[in-house]
Amino acid sequence: MRASRPRGRSFAALAVLTLALALPLPATAEAVEPAPAVVPQPVSQTSLTGSGFALTAQTPVNVISSSDPDAAGVGSYLAGLLAPATGYTLPVTTTSQPASQAIVLDPNGPSSLGAEGYTLNSTSTGVTVTAYGAQGLFRGVQTLRQLLPAAIESTSVKPGPWTVAPVQISDSPRYSYRGVMVDVARRYFPMAQLKRYIDQAATYKINTLHLHLTDDQGWRIAIGAIPSLTTVGASTQSGFTGGTTWYYTAAEYQEIVAYAKSRFMTVVPEIDGPGHTSAALASVANLNCNNTAISPYSGFDVGISLYCLSDAQHISNVSSFLTTVIDTVAAMTPGPYVHLGGDETPQATSTQYNAYVSAATAAATARGKTVMGWHQLGQSTIPANSIMQWWGDADDRSSIGTSNETESIQFVRNAVAQNAKFVMSPSDHAYLDMKYDSSTPYGLSWEGYVPLSRAYDWDPTTSTAKLNGTGSIVSAGQIAGVEAALWADRAYSPSTSLPTSTNQFPEPYVYAEHMTFPRLPAIAEIGWSPQSTHNFTDFSNRLATHGARWTAAGINYYAAPDVNWSGGGSSGGGAFNGVHTLATGGQALTVPKKGTNGTQLTTSALVSTNSQKWTFTEQPDGSYTLVNVGSGLCVDVNAGSMSAGAAIIQWTCSGTTNQRWNVAAATGGGYTLTSVKSGLVITTASTANNAAVTQQPSSGSALQRWTIG
Ligand code: TNX
């Protein structure tokens, strides 16, 4: 329980192995075929001999007819997934018999596969995914995409070949609930960015999207009957205030729900209370004891607010408010759950807290919804079959069985006695807002750092056990699953002090991807794969090949040091081979007009002429040469200089180290290009047209972070 810990964080003073089998190999090279690196690890996987199945522009995606209305959609989804990189528009057909030389999606498998299980067989004659319904096919399709080369994730056409590794897989999840929470209350995610995140999570078989829709810093969901919740309550974010409002209209929320459903993901809406309610208290006067609305809050603290629950009149006000809100949200939410929060309420007496839980749970059950809540909710009477979300940590675990059990442990015991189920989000492992290490620009560290190894190093069955793993107070059968939580209290850089400008906030997706990749795949594997497969070395070896996938997809991941990202850095595996533009702030690396051998490069508005196109070719050391498509000359450090400020020119290609560039994902988004010779990075002087390009020490400046287009 937060209140029992000396965290101080509540207050302002915060502290490849490449899929070589699938990459084009020189004719003379011998193909060494490693086992496909699937994450989460399937239950069983056997590599087959043979060449695998090569896709062509004519390969049909053949969905076997069934009574499941969603199955055909999985076929179209797969064809859509494969289209950008292959350039193919694969024909999607529905037939009663499987076609040959096809990707066959068969939803008529045995019920023993369960809702999400599947089998996958890939040989030179075709690929077949079999499941008991559309959902299992969808999960199998996520495995199938990982059997293709990393470049399949590219958003532009790549050369291929597109060979599916030959393998036989049989798979089903350990837990039925595998979630990720996004804190859209502290930091509003625009629609497109939320959808992008849904797609990324679905890749790792996450099936639940928990939206933290309300908090002190903002109310993000339109409630038609209470317009002030958005006109006032949505006028702030952490660090942002005034001028506009940030929220999802009813139509937008439903669009998100539908999009998530198309990725076989259930949305869990969270209406937090009785604390974390400043946005509601600023919008609705009679939720306050003095019947006066407070000012909207855009700060960074937690544990600062409480609905007024100290007299019958105000309990009734809160109850009718919650009924309106939960009715509206429940009506727009096809999934079975409504999350009622319940965390961090230091000011509430238990009578007040119980009054909240009783009002909120009544509203939810009246709508037929299953109640979810942070584990603190378990201190009160909760409806049958409620799900408590555990966010305690090792301190709580070490108190188990002592005379001094933490409140959190006591609340869990009370929930267990009421037959609750549990979703495990231990904050010292599954909180994606914790910094990886001291170099992480964003996030918090009240749980210490959470490097990838720690995100992977836990088991739900001991999340509420003593530290030695014995004496779990939640039995294995009561565990519904796991959830990673992307809080957004500190979605800016550097987050070690309070921000002084909104310029310190990257786009939400940049924050989200940096904190999520590679840790969400770790938590996804804990939720999906059998405990018997759990092995960090094996996981990190498999995950290493995913760096090239994320690079191809344009995901701003963190190249965590506990993984040997194949090929070195995040550029491994020749992921960038091909023609690209390089732009920063919309200004592209350009050979100026009338440039000749020796002309200094500039940046100017991105228009994608040949003078702005560069052919990247991976070199044996993992670096790249960059040849201009117009001139045929190479990006070169003038005279092989080792000095900061030396001009970057175009020069006859020579293969020397002053023409080789290491490409690495940069903190804050984009990529740096570091000279193999000098160790200095390609830097433009400004975002003005015709700015001069030189080599400079890496500083994290946006003028050194290039978008590879
Ligand atoms: C605790 S976890 C919170 C959130 C913060 C988070 C930051 C929980 C139920 N409450 O309000 O965003 O820590 O790490």
Can you count the helices?
Answer: 15
Q: CATH class of the largest domain, anyone?
A: Alpha Beta
Q: Termini separation (Å)?
A: 46 Å
Name of the CATH superfamily of the largest domain: Glycosidases
Q: How big is the Rg?
A: 27 Å
Q: Can you list the ligands bound to this structure?
A: ligand TNX
**Number of spatially distinct domains:** 3
The main β sheet shows up as: 8 strands, parallel, barrel
Topology, number of strands? 34
CATH topology of the largest domain: TIM Barrel
Helical amount among residues, as a percent range? 10-25%
DSSP strand (E) fraction? 15-25%
Low-confidence runs of at least 5 consecutive residues: 1-32, 567-572
Index terms:
alpha/beta, 8-stranded parallel beta barrel, Chitobiase, domain 2, 34 strands, binds ligand TNX, disordered N terminus, Trefoil (Acidic Fibroblast Growth Factor, subunit A), 20% strand
Task: Walk me through this protein's architecture.
The chain has 709 residues and is α/β, with parallel strands linked by helices. It has three domains: 128 residues, 2-Layer Sandwich (Chitobiase, domain 2), CATH 3.30.379.10; 358 residues, Glycosidases (TIM Barrel, Alpha-Beta Barrel); 137 residues, Trefoil (Acidic Fibroblast Growth Factor, subunit A) (Trefoil), CATH 2.80.10. It is 23% helix and 20% strand. The strands form nine sheets. It has an eight-stranded parallel beta barrel with strand order 10-11-16-17-18-19-20-21, surrounded by six helices. Helix 1 packs parallel to helix 2 and helix 3 runs parallel beside helix 5. The N terminus is likely disordered.
